[in-house]
Amino acid sequence: MTTVEDLYLGVIRDSITRHPRSLQKRIGPSEIGKPCDRWILHKLNGDGEPDRGPAWKPAIGTAVHDQLERWFDEANRGGGEVDKTEWITEWQVTVGTIGGTSITGHSDLFHVPTGTVIDHKIVGPKQLTKYRIHGPSEQYRVQAHLYGKGFTDDGGWGPCRTVAIAFLPRDGELQNAVFWSEPYNPHLAGEAMLRANRLNLMLQVVGIDAALQAAPLCDDQWCTWCKTEQRAQQRAAGGSLFDVGELRVVPDAAPTPSPGNAIPPLAELIPPAPVARVTPIRPEVAVAAPTPLCTACGTVMHPVLIAEGHTTHPTCAYPAPRPIPATPQPAAAAPAPIRNLFDR
What is the mean pLDDT of the segment spanning 97-109? Predict the structure, then answer.
């Protein structure tokens, strides 16, 4: 039966799944800087990203982006005049071409007076600490410089001079935000586009399978393609001790002894114990036959001894050894008295 909870969560999941960001298959500026070649190849090939469930955290970031867009639009007090506009929000730019196809993206923010591209990132506390200490990842740097390239190539709002990334806390206060910036570097953006075109050329020449074989799996925990393929390889290899439910135990084949040095199995060396016969007394009652006892001590005989025809324990068949008397030791002599030289 469908509950209100199911209906409630279903609306959220469907909305996240149908969002344009979730449906986009063409590679964009936010992905060109990824260090994993396999990710880029899959994206250039138009492959759908492996299912990882509703992307709730990215959905939070999208919602914050929408609110920031409204706030910065309201901050423009030039009365709609282009020459007095200070903040440009969600502006579409073309960052270059890959295989003759234009690659476009939406820049979060551009500050016209200073020529600064600003990208919003809504992150958790651990990532916030990492970016405060080490700065942004190479993927985020490339994305910011690609947007700078788009504004510079377009020229409508003036050239880009600085790129910046605003890391906003998803679980903290605004005072914990980290604002990183550096001068715009057109060479960094150009090298990223050159790499993407090189991978695209290899994809067109050899195909996706051969291209993936030439690209090693990465160790990035956020690379959904590499994580999925690593798990598939582990399952194909017989599983991992850390994959619950995926481990398959394959018994080793029994060694084949050589004809000249064959060793009979242990079951043939020890004859099986005889099965106790059951003598029915009444149709509904059955009593087991008594187990033979040792004729010497009266205790139960071992099934192996019974099978060999013994009626007495081997230890009962021989008289107990007599104890060996201890050798008498001579009495210890009394110690001689000690003479005291000071005793006169």
Answer: 94
